[in-house]
Write a structure and sequence with these properties.
Length: 256
């Protein structure tokens, strides 16, 4: 089905961190929406399996091994996608250190852990934008969607490295939107609430989950599928005049 200005048919979409969790759901959603989706992840076998499953359903998907913190790898992927797909139309910066993180008081966070979180969660999206945006700029159109977190508006405790990285990503989205707007490229941040991806996380106890659901206007657990609508919209031509925005998808837990 073609949704006119909402259509993603024929668009090339790169989703980082597409091997599991929210990224995986987004890869599947973009493929079902008719785009040619590239799932990139440090977990090479995971993205290969995701892509293979989608190709088996007659959809267009491929997997790419990528460490978003390695500029050489990011540059190489941008060049290879320029050759094979004419560049990417949509970049979804989703990869992050998240489910593997331990919560701890900020003054107990080791410097190397702090630096690693900032490197993956903030430098990674910077590097991907640095190498993929120029191709969009040359074409005069493109979409960058940065997956931040609703936790930045809450200022969740014992998560300082993560919150700092995602707050930086929100600021980066606004600033990048100003630089790229004149070239037809939009940059927005999506702020999910607490999403149950099925991946085990130390940071969410059943009590913490109930507390979060109780804060929401829509009192049910959030699932990755809840993010799909806003992602497809922000990737489409319909959102051409929306840029530099932070869009919260958390069932109304926070109001920004
Ligand atoms: N699940 C939630 O509740 C929630 C809430 C708010 C925001 N988010 C954000 O949504 C995004 C996805 O979350 P998730 O729950 O699926 O997380 P996840 O930890 O399950 O998945 C993260 C993915 O990123 C990949 N990755 C990690 N380091 C990488 C690197 N250096 N290069 C390339 N890939 C790398 C991992 O291999 C993994 O596939 C993240 O940006 C996260 O911060 C999640």
């Amino acid at each position: 089905m073609d949704y006119g200005p909402m259509s993603l048919r024929g668009k090339t979409v790169l989703v980082t961190g597409g091997g599991q969790g929210i990224g995986r759901t987004l890869v599947e959603a973009f493929a079902r929406a008719g785009s040619r989706v590239v799932a990139a992840d440090i977990q090479e076998t995971a993205v290969a399996a995701v892509a293979e499953g989608l190709c088996g359903q007659g959809l267009q998907a491929s997997g790419a091994a990528l460490d978003v913190t390695d500029e050489q790898q990011v540059r190489a992927l941008s060049r290879s996608l320029l050759d094979s797909h004419g560049g990417v139309d949509v970049l979804v910066n989703n990869a992050a250190l998240f489910s593997t993180l331990t919560m701890q008081p900020f003054d107990e966070i080791e410097l190397d852990v702090w630096e690693k979180v900032l490197k993956v969660n903030l430098t990674g999206p910077f590097l991907c934008a640095k190498h993929f945006a120029p191709i969009m700029r040359d074409k005069g159109e493109g979409r960058i969607i940065n997956v931040a977190s609703g936790a930045v508006t809450l200022g969740r405790p014992n998560y300082l490295h993560y919150i700092a990285s995602k707050s930086g990503l929100v600021g980066m989205s606004r600033s990048m939107a100003r630089e790229l707007g004149p070239h037809g490229v939009t940059v927005n941040a999506v702020l999910p609430g607490s999403v149950d991806t099925g991946i085990q996380r130390e940071t969410v106890t059943p009590e913490a989950k109930s507390r979060i659901v109780a804060m929401q206007c829509i009192p049910r657990g959030q699932v990755p599928q809840d993010l799909v609508g806003v992602m497809l919209f922000l990737a489409s031509d319909s959102s051409a005049f929306i840029t530099g925005q932070s869009i919260t998808v958390d069932g109304g837990a926070t109001h920004s």
